[in-house]
Amino acid sequence: MGKLYSSIILHPIVNGGRNPSNFHSSCSFNTVATHINALSKNSMPARGKPKKYDSLDNVDDALFSFNKMIHKYPMPSVVEFNKLLGAIVRMKRYAIAVSMCKQMEFFRVSPDVYTLNILTNCFCHLGQLDCGFSVLGKMLKLGVEPTVVTFSTLINGLCNQSQISHAVGLFDEMIGQGYRPNLIVYSTILNGLCKTGNTYRAVRFLRMMEERGFEPNIVAYSTVIDCLCKNGLLNEALDLFSEVKAKGIRPNIVSYNCLIHALCNLGQQKETMQLLNEMVDNNISCDIVTYNVLIDAHCKEGMISEAIEILDTMRKHGIEPNLITYNICIDAYCKEGMLAEAKDIVDTMIKQGIEPDVVTYSVLVDGHCLQNQMDKAKSVFQLMIEKGCAPDIHSYNIMINGYCKAKRLDKAMELFDELAQNGQIPDTVTYNTLMQEGLPDEACQLFRSMEENDCLPDSFCYNIMIRGFLRNSYTSKATQLLKEMVSKGFSAGTSTATLFLDLILRSNNKSILI
């Protein structure tokens, strides 16, 4: 197997500014190393001798064992250190594992490929991808041949940070150097493509897996089916589902849930029932996700009583509602103006030991806003803060919209000013709401402040502003903004175009837009 000197692999190392020969010093974990020393000196195993590495589940025991090993003569082999590092990684104490590797290097314990793979894995979990690639550079310098595990770890790290193009590039380079990816590597790339919405590339990659003799399992197929459904390609998802069954691969609950969710979103009740009946025939029971999808679908259709019946059926089958279930029902009652019933659901969930979250409170706030009960909405908003449940930008947007609809723009602006103090960044919804209801001059100031908050105006923002200018006879400003909007690649909506046309007809001046 040839060594890898590809620009694709070395590119992240160079960009990260890491020197493969001293990657430990460039990725600072000195404080953790100090922590290891302190714990090692002060901590003793709870019951005599430390546990065997495979059964270690306490970091203090692991640190005690490590400290003992590095001071033992003769020093244990790197294999023993690898076992201990593996135990630390299973505890998800990645930074401590990195510092252990640094101390191993200091005590001249020569790492092998397993040590360096563990280190790469730790850096990837810590989000230190440049350090992970530095470990690959160190392998090349030491003459240690990277393995498929090395590349699958780096590929997974890239995918987790949505750097899918780099992941695919590394995958291609790996194959070009004669490595044979295993099913884990293929599945990692496939999952990464789906998570980043690269639907068609995911389908092509799935076909490539099949062509290369790696028959995807139901998890891989379900991942692609889910991706197709989420991107509005239901027919393609159903075709792939049929193909899976024709190959003799048994669908699982995940694949059924993806399709049922997509069908429910489109209101295709007949097809949904067909899939549910098929599940029964295949002896696959509905889980909490299935029930939540069905309850949500009925709530969105205003069929709350039917949704509650499904919830009762779920309980009869031994599945208790979760927070998502309760939030769906609370939202449905709030949208129907049935706030008393919504609060009863909240009381029920609290009795079941389930605490309301930011979604629950936001839904209740919205329910009061819809009924123009702004004082009650504000009380729930304050209660949310008192309960230690920090409002998110969606919560603020609900309150701001409520105040705007109630023509209490001063209160809306007060909340807007609070956003920065509470660590929230206004989004396009925030600005659109305020601009739609505000006065043209104030709205213009807000519009121009968007870029200062790293929130670029979208097409909807431009159209709102232009319509506001036109309705208030700010013809020149409206025209200038229209030109700016077009230069950004946006186009006027129907309402905006109609207002301009009306202006031209009333003024009999076709040169307004020139």
UniProtKB/TrEMBL annotation:
Q: Which UniProt keywords apply?
A: Repeat
* Pfam families in alphabetical order: PPR_1, PPR_2
The reply on keyword Secreted is no
An example GO BP is: chloroplast-nucleus signaling pathway
Q: Which GO terms describe its cellular component?
A: chloroplast
Mark the PPR repeats by their residue spans. 112-146, 147-181, 182-216, 217-251, 252-286, 287-321, 322-356, 357-391, 392-426, 458-492
Say which domain of life the source belongs to: Eukaryota
Signal peptide annotation = none
Family named by the database record: Belongs to the PPR family. P subfamily.
Entries under PANTHER family matching the protein: PENTATRICOPEPTIDE REPEAT-CONTAINING PROTEIN GUN1, CHLOROPLASTIC, PPR_LONG DOMAIN-CONTAINING PROTEIN
- NCBIfam families given for it? PPR
Protein name, UniProt field: Pentacotripeptide-repeat region of PRORP domain-containing protein
